[in-house]
Amino acid sequence: MSAPELRATVSLAAIFALRMLGLFMIMPVFSVYAKTIPGGDNLLLVGVALGAYGVTQSLLYIFYGWLSDKVGRKPVIAAGLVIFAIGSFVAAFGHDITWIIVGRVIQGMGAVSSAVLAFIADLTAEEHRTKAMAMVGGSIGVSFAVAIVGAPVVFHWVGMSGLFTLVGVFSILAVGVVLWVVPDAPKPVHVRAPFAEVLHNVELLRLNFGVLVLHATQTALFLVVPRLLVDAGLPVRSHWMIYLPVMGLAFVLMVPAIIAAEKRGKMKAVLVSAIGLILIGQLLLGSLSHTLTIVASVLFIYFLGFNILEASQPSLVSKLAPGARKGAATGVYNTTQSIGLALGGVVGGWLLKHGGPSTVFYTCSGLVLCWLIIAAYMKAPPKRA
């Protein structure tokens, strides 16, 4: 990569990571916090609060991408981040489940991911684009690890209102990065996105289904796991003692898997294996007793698979959608990701309310098994020259 390409990719990946950090930091602690506020005893509403932003994101991703083609990337990304910050502050000052849901809906209206990915495509050469997308995927994995480990500690210090406020501040900082760090690019020429071609691409459809299942099951998982840890005797402020070693080891072991996938042409084998790890993790959480040792061990299996998939799938989307179809492909991919987040919160909350934790884990296992079968028939991507 040239110096301008590297600067553009790193700064835009940082924006992506800051925004995702804000979203991820809510997940490990919210289901426990909800017990203390009016309406928080309704598990369905707790699930809605976790997944609500996914609904508005899924409705607006394609619009934001189209608008960024018309008026430029920077204004659209900056405006979306400001909207996300407003939603964070609404949730911070909301002291019942209804106002937190309102805040989460507004957060979802700042759906800038498709515009960010399109901006990376504008600022990088074709031969470096897969590398740039992989850097974005890696930044998401890092932000997830930081959020999962740090959120319980920050929550203990500043509470949920402080956590939402911090999320809003992160978003404002990201606006500064957009305006003063990201290089300028020529105004893109609006081209009608060939969504029909994207939707007819079987390999992209596999990835779209996969990211929907990945984030649906992740959201559902975090409706249950924080409560399991508290029930096992570990207060929220100490959850980092589980998450830190689990995420640290999973992240270290993810690296050789990504190297094998990218450099040695093992992408299909690595992806299918990672899906298998997620399936094993969900099944074990549903069938074993929930002692701290068992939960920590199973979470390691789950997060090893999750981190591999979160870092590699965006890169694979960019490989499988050459030329003019990249923008359309990433827009549809992000849309299905958000639908998964919404479904995981709403359906997961309903299952937890009516069936308990094991019902959530076994339902997620069924979804992941369907994904594993679909992914097993994917074509192996061509090896990198």
Query: What is the H-and-E element order?
Result: HHHHHHHHHHHHHH
CATH class: Mainly Alpha
Give the helix level as a range of percent.
over 70%
Distance between the termini: 16 Å
Main sheet attributes: strand count, strand direction, barrel closure: none
Question: Would you write up a description of this structure?
Answer:
With 385 residues, this protein is an all-alpha fold. It has one domain: MFS general substrate transporter like domains (Growth Hormone, Chain: A, Up-down Bundle), CATH 1.20.1250. It has helices at 3-24, 27-33, 43-71, 73-93, 97-108, 113-123, 129-180, 195-199, 202-231, 240-263, 267-287, 292-320, 326-355, 357-376. The chain is globular and about 55 Å long.
Helices and strands in order:
Blueprint: H1 3-24, H2 27-33, H3 43-71, H4 73-93, H5 97-108, H6 113-123, H7 129-180, H8 195-199, H9 202-231, H10 240-263, H11 267-287, H12 292-320, H13 326-355, H14 357-376
Features:
385 residues; mainly alpha; Growth Hormone, Chain: A; 14 helices
In summary, what is this structure?
The chain is mostly helical.
